[in-house]
UniProtKB/TrEMBL annotation, chains A, B:
It holds the Pfam family FAD_binding_4. Belongs to the FAD-binding oxidoreductase/transferase type 4 family. The keyword Flavoprotein applies. This is FAD-binding oxidoreductase. Keywords: FAD, Flavoprotein. InterPro entries: FAD-bd_oxidored_4_C (IPR004113), FAD-bd_PCMH (IPR016166), FAD-bd_PCMH-like_sf (IPR036318), FAD-bd_PCMH_sub1 (IPR016167), FAD-bd_PCMH_sub2 (IPR016169), FAD-linked_Oxase-like_C (IPR016164), FAD-oxidored/transferase_4 (IPR051264), Oxid_FAD_bind_N (IPR006094). PANTHER family: BLL6224 PROTEIN, D-2-HYDROXYGLUTARATE DEHYDROGENASE, MITOCHONDRIAL. Residues 34-215 form the FAD-binding PCMH-type domain. SUPFAM superfamilies: FAD-binding/transporter-associated domain-like, FAD-linked oxidases, C-terminal domain.
Length: 470, 470
């Protein structure tokens, strides 16, 4: 009996897919940067089936590659080329198990789409604040496994800050029943914190209990044109002074990236009279009714205009205008995908260091990649600026990998000089395992390996992700 | 050469204390519930000395009991009776290393007093939101090691939510340099999250980088008299509706506990006309100037009075009145300490379950401990209600332990029925290791033991805390 036959005795037939066409979308990431092989795609419908799969995988030493909406940017959900692994899709675990309005919590299974969770919270007059470009297709299990960030981190934190409890399956199939709606629980080690962000290498997340927040009853959205990143930081500081903790998003984009977005993504329009060197996207929100948040934004921007901190600003006068402004920001990933050969990064540095970091990257690029265009877009409010190097269209495909490696080494070295992170929110995946080995403190890396051994002694959970194979 | 002699070659003489009188305060907890022995008290002045101590401890297999302000409530910082251990006091590592106003971060060493950190933040027009009864003497390393909570968790979270980066020393003496002012960093496993709340059993915390927040420019404080815990939840719900995320604290206290506080702690005055069955303490704060937060509170309380949700309310008209109200809340620990024999708990349940949980505890106490008084005080806004059973004064001292065990078993069983936590914010320490063994899922406990093994293979770090000795 082949190992797959053994699995057939444990699972519903619909849970086992071997048809190459049906498997194909699961063997590559959405940017088409990674391709792998698997001898089956498993689509369990329940936690019990996930448990059965992991017991089987442990018994047969079968590598498991957990996969959610497959929107990751680091190759963490794509199997390697060997074909030894199975892809474990959590898509069919897609129930919202509970919403507690009084306690402001929501419990959802791994396969739930992020946008559906946002809507379920909104339907109950609450906010689920996680928001990112792929929210229409990424899944809750994936955002937990990668500790996703997005545009509201400045106010609400990353996924880690939103998770109260976690249900996950250990490598040996044991289900850890850690769902809980508790804001405080210090009963033993914070195992779930370790599982969050471990990219499917320590356990398979099957459900999570999240915090909900007061839904902003009043909001204000603006797009500003500025001369420089340091002007953006000045504006942030002014806004903090007057809007306090009401700043939900504060995003920065350079004009080169704005150009790509306007050129490559249909339906994008710049609501300013002319182009500027830099743009800031602002979202304020207030859970209290009758909040003068709109006036606060108008007055702060007027004052910033007067002081020459910004050059122009468009304040949304309707929901539709607000959506149009944010569409410009969210379209970036799509624009970059269509724009041709790029090398992109997901570094973060201290907020105050952002302008100097950008200058250092520009200087490096001017010296080493004179034909590339250096683009910046990201979450300046939390120091996480995506560096995007757009290579000339005529760059030979076979040179891309080498150029990428060379550029990455430079960008990561600069990041390290600033005491930053090589991967602020996209995780390590399979892309950056070598970089982690190079940049992490060896003693910390040894602890990570010891933790991996503690959770997954047989090494069947997403091998080759996060920690390089040895 | 004795092992202490070996240590003398590594440390400044002032770092090694063996005088019994000087050691005594470090061998018991502040409530006097735990007493232990140690063959030395070590008081390093630097991270390098901490590292040297741990290298020595590893070489000599000496158990290390890390200690901060020694204000813990679970016996986690008191050595056992064997005298085999040394107490490692972090008190002299007490520098604030950096404050970054633009990035809203503060980096402090383990021995810094919490109140000093609050003041340093305030002096820079920022808020460090952690606030708890022992803030005048507890130390930053201890609050990180125990993931402390306190009265502002409803808004700002526990210590875990405040820590951005951590410097800690491994059992073998290796210093993990994880201080960073980054809001986002997904480069590998979240080791620091595991160290937070591990009560000195996985590593010794030497410094942390914390988030700072906008300092409330407008605040409002009130004490309310109510009839029941469910009225308190109704009030919370009304307040959420109008004050949104501006609720910094929402605390509940029963009249029995209020009576103890008024009786036993000098300088406490009830600012209401008469006593009530229950009290709620409210603190609102707003980082934006000109916020109508005071009016919001007045109007919400007036509306609650009208709807008979509350019976009376005192709104502070000055800083001094606000401090007097909060003095009533903070004096509870002192009142309980002076009031005679008590058995206290630190459970949490879902917020909506608080009234039913209180009723269940009262019913249990009426049946099993008819002579005890059942008191409740705590953070109803986050579901963390301290159950305090006050035993008759004449209870023979030698019976206290047995009564305590019996009561605890009942309280924990009820907590488990509600899906709550046996220790919301006080940790496991040495008090609750048996309870953790009993109540934790065995597969989760096994993971905790594997993690302990990964971090501390020789078992020298605070042995007997968190995980029961086997």
């Amino acid at each position: 009996m082949s190992s797959l036959d053994a699995l057939r005795t444990l699972l519903d037939p619909s849970a086992i897919v071997t048809d190459p066409e049906a498997m194909a979308p699961h063997l590559t990431d959405w940017r088409g940067k990674h391709r792998g092989e698997a001898f089956a795609l498993l689509r369990p419908r329940s936690v019990e089936e996930v448990s059965a799969i992991l017991r089987w995988a442990s018994a047969t030493r079968t590598p498991i590659v957990p996969q959610g909406g497959n929107t990751g940017l680091s190759g963490g959900a794509t199997p390697d080329a060997s074909g030894d692994a199975v892809v474990l899709s959590l898509t069919r675990l897609n129930r919202i198990r509970a919403i507690d309005i009084e306690g402001d919590t929501l419990t959802a299974e791994a396969g739930c789409i992020l946008a559906d969770i946002q809507q379920a919270a909104a339907a109950n007059d609450r906010l689920f604040p996680l928001s990112l470009g792929s929210e229409g297709s990424c899944q809750i299990g994936g955002v937990v496994a990668t500790n996703a960030g997005g545009i509201n981190v400045i106010r609400y934190g990353t996924v880690r800050d939103l998770v109260l409890g976690l249900e996950y399956v250990r490598a040996d199939g044991a289900v850890i029943h850690g769902l809980k709606p508790l804001r405080k629980d210090n009963a033993g080690y914070a195992l779930q914190e370790l599982v969050i962000g471990s990219e499917g290498t320590l356990a398979v997340v099957t459900a999570a209990t999240f915090r909900l927040f007061p839904r902003p009853r009043v909001g204000a959205t603006a797009l500003c044109g500025l001369d420089s990143p340091s002007a953006a930081l000045k504006l942030l500081s002014m806004l903090k002074q007057f809007a306090g903790e009401r700043i939900s998003s504060f995003e920065l984009m350079c004009d080169g990236e704005m150009g790509l977005t306007l050129d490559f993504v249909p339906g994008t329009i710049l609501p300013l009279e002319r182009r500027h060197a830099w743009y800031v996207f602002i979202e304020l929100g207030d859970g209290a009714p009758n909040s003068p948040i709109g006036e606060v934004l108008t007055e702060t921007l007027a004052s910033a205009l007067e002081q020459d901190v910004l050059q122009d600003a468009a304040i949304a006068q309707s929901e539709a205008q607000a959506r149009a402004i944010w569409h410009l920001r969210f379209a970036v990933a799509e624009a970059n995908r269509r724009a041709g050969p790029i090398v992109s990064h997901n570094t973060s540095v201290a907020v105050a260091d952002v302008p100097a970091f950008i200058s250092a990257i520009e200087a490096m690029a001017a010296e080493h990649l004179p034909n590339a265009r250096t683009l910046f877009v990201g979450h300046v409010g939390d120091g996480n600026i995506h560096v995007v190097l757009r290579l000339p269209k005529e760059t030979p495909a076979e040179q891309l990998a080498d150029i990428g490696h060379a550029v990455n080494a430079q960008v990561f070295a600069i990041t390290r000089d600033f005491g930053g992170s090589i991967t602020a929110e996209h995780g390590i995946g399979r892309n950056l395992t070598g970089t982690l080995t190079l940049h992490a403190q060896p003693e910390a890396l040894a602890l990570m390996r010891a933790v991996k051994q503690a959770f997954d002694p047989l090494g069947i959970l997403n091998p080759g992700a996060v920690l390089a194979k040895r």
